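## tool: complex_structure
## caller: assistant
## args:
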Amino acid sequence: MEKKITDLISENKIQDIRNELLEMNIVDIANVLEEVEKTQLVMIFRILPKDIAAGVFAYIPAELQQHLVESITDKEIKIIIDELFLDDAVDFIEEMPASIVKRVLKNTNESLRTQINQLLNYPEHSAGSIMTVEYVDLKKEMTVNEAIKHIKKSGVDKETIYTSYVIDSNRRLEGVVSIRKLILSDETTKINDILHDDVISVKTTDDQENIAHLFKKYDLSTMPVVDNENRLVGIITVDDIVDIIDQENTEDIQKMAAMEPSDEEYLKTGVFKLAKHRIMWLLILMLSATFTGGIIKRFEDVLQSVVVLTAFIPMLMDTGGNAGSQSSTLIIRGMALGEISMRDVFKVFWKELRVSIVVGIILALINFLRIYYLEGVGALVSITVCLTLFLTVLLAKVVGGLLPILAKSLKLDPAIMASPLITTIVDAFSLIIYFEMARVFLGV
Amino acid sequence: MEKKITDLISENKIQDIRNELLEMNIVDIANVLEEVEKTQLVMIFRILPKDIAAGVFAYIPAELQQHLVESITDKEIKIIIDELFLDDAVDFIEEMPASIVKRVLKNTNESLRTQINQLLNYPEHSAGSIMTVEYVDLKKEMTVNEAIKHIKKSGVDKETIYTSYVIDSNRRLEGVVSIRKLILSDETTKINDILHDDVISVKTTDDQENIAHLFKKYDLSTMPVVDNENRLVGIITVDDIVDIIDQENTEDIQKMAAMEPSDEEYLKTGVFKLAKHRIMWLLILMLSATFTGGIIKRFEDVLQSVVVLTAFIPMLMDTGGNAGSQSSTLIIRGMALGEISMRDVFKVFWKELRVSIVVGIILALINFLRIYYLEGVGALVSITVCLTLFLTVLLAKVVGGLLPILAKSLKLDPAIMASPLITTIVDAFSLIIYFEMARVFLGV
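## result:
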């Protein structure tokens, strides 16, 4: 499919290109535009009907949007902005440099400009910033027939007509009616009799992560956004929530790997920006590892008298780190999904303690077989190593399980208590255990 | 709210409980049922109207479902199963022990039983296993008016009426029509003239991860599922996709922390099962760390002549591991989201090389200031440590960036090339670099 269209483009067969594009989904057309030369981009964009052009525009990356807007006339800009859903228009404007924003806003009519400016004012990641103001509103005195007529008249430009919102004369939200209910009800029924008044709504300032939780909890497809006086100001649709869930997951995963979170695509992010997101945590962790070095220095005499002990340090540190990250990862994820809360702290402690005993015994035994029987390490050294291994796993799993909960109770993000920090903490403790064991068993 | 209802329950005021519950969302009712004593569970469940009872039943955990089914009559079971959406009924049956499944199936009529059995046969995580068969189908000869009448007649039991599917006499999928299009079109228009025939569909055997990708790419709310002859057999709705996205993310995160993935809730998983999911990778990584120990043994002479070198081993290993996991995490996530593919291997290499040079220089310089000026470590040892640090970061980031892509090209899951494995690999190389540097600079 895309092969054929690129052939037509290189042969410049405009009518054929148009016919081919009109058969395609707007997301696929956007993909085609990403592949073509920038000189052809404007040509292809111009042959699309205006509603499709606006749809495609919402799906191309910001740099292509900018290039397009810089290449077309003021009149064409006006047409696109008018056709775009308001939330897509706002997303686009947020990404553009000031000069383009100015030109775009100059070319929109005043009421639209006011709406755009209002949406631009909401803080990033708030309900206000992700909502759209294009929804269908009904009054409860309407009949089903009147409501359907109202939807027919006003519904063409609305982002969704699947849910209508019932408001009073002060725009205060009174309930919702699904199109399903309207279609399946008698024509003369009053909206008042079929509206659902136990509405789950959010405030404009609520955070998108909590909104995504509500969507998941109640299996919603849309959600109304209200201001402090419970007046309806917008709606959020589930297709935006799907993106937000991925975005929140990406942020958590990045934090868990000791990076500052960013929702920019890797390949589109510059080298210095990538470096900036990584350096702070690397520095913090590098300096923390100094403690571990200090512990080794303090026990230098132990290492000098039994040199073979040094060879097991990496294995002990790595296994402790891995055992701890497994636990912290499960707890962090469980908390992110709302499955584990702070009051479960004792359940987590008790579970991790038992899991770590099972896992620790298996690891210590297998390690003993390997170093004592296969490598011929002395019995006392083998016991020292394996007992340390067991205690390290125990400590790592309990610490790994509890620290994310502790972080949450201190109002910190649990995701920072992941692999890197847990590893650093466990490293220090495991070395202390190791050397103290050595003193006891080897008498050094 | 929940406080009040629990008070009413403890006072056993049945009529008040019922009134209170009828005001609540089914998800919240399900939460109430999770909190009450098992003896009260059945009582409360029985006072709910049957459609609400079925809705609530779909939201309570499997153990409560089982307890309920064991406590109610055959006739009540039949009512619930009839009222449940088919995909919820199948989810429920999949979780039950054989004796209950037998009793449930015995109490459903034959056509429903056949449908349930068919759905149970699809492999886990396939389109067939997550789809529902309750959709609205239309013929293209119908008028809009006839179509809306058909929806009114058959739509009550359907999972969604927002999208209708147009099929021919052999049930082959010919197109889709949204309820929006129906409502906004003239009553006498033929379905044929408004149907959208460029339908994005999946096969029954397609994997849920790819299906979620399509939903996200095309911002879909429903998707038809067809068999090998393109006959419509079911639909998938976006609310199920939201859960699947979380499930796939959880799996990736668990794999990245060196665990066998599991979609069971942490607090509901037994100790031995948790241990089983963790032990294999811990063993593999523990045994791999043996190589690192071997390297230290090989260079024992170096460590014995310059004892202070040992103290920097943890810092070098940890920083290398952290630097490598940052890179591998970004690449694994980028591949999971479809932003990075195998053909980007050189872009990734070039980007990671430059990022690692920036990050490596900063870390090495700060470390030099700290150990040479603050701790008074000798110049040559300081240079050895800092040069090793720089090279380790370089290597860690390049290896961390490339191994996930290599894994993918070998048809392995990139997520296994995460923090734990990268750390083990980088540890070994960083120690070799360290000791070779020491030989060069310190002449040992």
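## assistant note: The beta strands of chain B are 136-138, 163-167, 173-178, 202-203, 222-226, 232-237. The mean pLDDT of chain B is 89. Handing back to user.
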